[in-house]
TrEMBL record:
Superkingdom classification of source: Bacteria
Protein name from the UniProt record: ATP-binding cassette domain-containing protein
A Pfam family reported for this protein in Swiss-Prot or TrEMBL: ABC_tran
Domain ABC transporter: 1-236
PANTHER family, per the entry: ABC TRANSPORTER I FAMILY MEMBER 10, SULFATE_THIOSULFATE IMPORT ATP-BINDING PROTEIN CYSA
Presence of the UniProt keyword Membrane in the record: no
């Protein structure tokens, strides 16, 4: 179990607020962190990584205590077994791909070749990083994070919108790779995304940050209670509705959906054979 409990004062666009979390996440699963812009998603990951300090909190990965303010325990970032991928990759521009991957990780030589091969980076190792495409940058950043944590017990992989700058094909490809890598290396993975379809495809758990005027609370949401496919409403045309389903656009008669009167463009639905139900993401 990964226990995350903290309270952190942040300065929001509409004034100060408290970001609060009290969650127990199963290990070796993917959890997705969603919420409105400015809700505190990146801050949540930064607190986990030890990049933001809190006055009150306790973070434990199984028996290992990373933070306990009552006992004055606070492991510095480099002591936490955690790999972090930033939104823009944050590669070192003066180092080539290989040197970026091994940066700060000379101990884990045994894992380096496996990660390079898994991420398909063999042909790029000598390339300067400013020459890379967006997808390649994210694969190098992911490889660097993986090399840092593989071989360490109770390791966490944190990804701050790793796919947001990619086109649909690169995004779909990297989503599959993330799923494979998390399962293959038995990682506990936390991913920020604004894309609920992506969340549905990737995650076992959804953490939603609920905004109230002076308090933002991280809540677990169960979004896989029903077997089905997730689709977004693209356009309502007369008696039919166009939905984006996976990477296809499908058209359905309106009367095949339950409660079609509440249908809005941009809504997310779970399509179950013979019927469809709207998912209320903003409870
Ligand atoms: N160290 C800090 N101290 C005080 N306020 C902060 C700190 N870091 C970030 N903030 C503020 O906290 C709020 C939440 O920021 P954060 O980046 O965590 O949100 P987010 O949900 O990731 O946003 P987005 O989806 O737009 O990336 C913002 O208003 C930000 O300016």
């Amino acid at each position: 179990m990964l226990h995350i409990e903290f309270s952190k004062q942040l300065e929001g666009a509409r004034g100060p607020f408290e970001l609060e979390a009290n969650l127990d996440l199963k290990t070796q699963q993917i959890s997705v962190l969603c919420g409105p812009s400015g809700a505190g998603k990146s801050s949540f990951l930064r607190v986990l990584a030890g990049l933001e300090l809190v006055k009150k909190g306790r973070i434990c990965f199984k028996e290992s205590v990373w933070l306990d303010t009552t006992q004055k325990i606070c492991l510095p970032p480099q002591k936490r077994p955690l790999g972090f991928v930033f939104q823009d990759g944050a590669l070192f521009p003066h180092l080539n791909v290989y040197d970026n991957i091994i940066f700060g990780n000379p101990r884990h030589q045994a894992h380096i070749e496996e990660v390079i091969s898994l991420m398909g980076l063999e042909g790029l190792l000598k390339h300067p990083t400013p020459m890379l495409s967006g997808g390649q940058v994210q694969r190098v950043a992911l490889a660097r994070a993986l090399v840092r944590i593989l071989g360490q017990p109770n390791a966490l992989l944190c990804l701050d919108e790793p796919l947001s700058a990619l086109d649909a094909d690169a995004r779909a490809h990297l989503q599959e790779q993330l799923k494979y890598i998390s399962a293959h290396f038995k990682l506990t993975t936390l991913i920020i995304t604004h894309d609920l379809l992506e969340a549905y495809k990737l995650a076992h758990n959804l953490i939603w940050i609920e905004e109230k005027p002076q308090k933002h609370t991280c809540l677990m949401r169960d979004f896989k209670t029903q077997e089905g496919l997730c689709a977004r409403v693209l356009e309502i045309k007369g008696q039919s509705v166009e939905l984006v389903l996976e990477r296809q656009i499908v058209s359905l008669p309106l009367n095949s959906l339950q409660t079609p009167q509440t249908l809005k463009e941009g809504d997310l639905w779970v399509l179950i054979p013979q019927r469809a139900e709207r998912v209320d993401w903003h409870l």
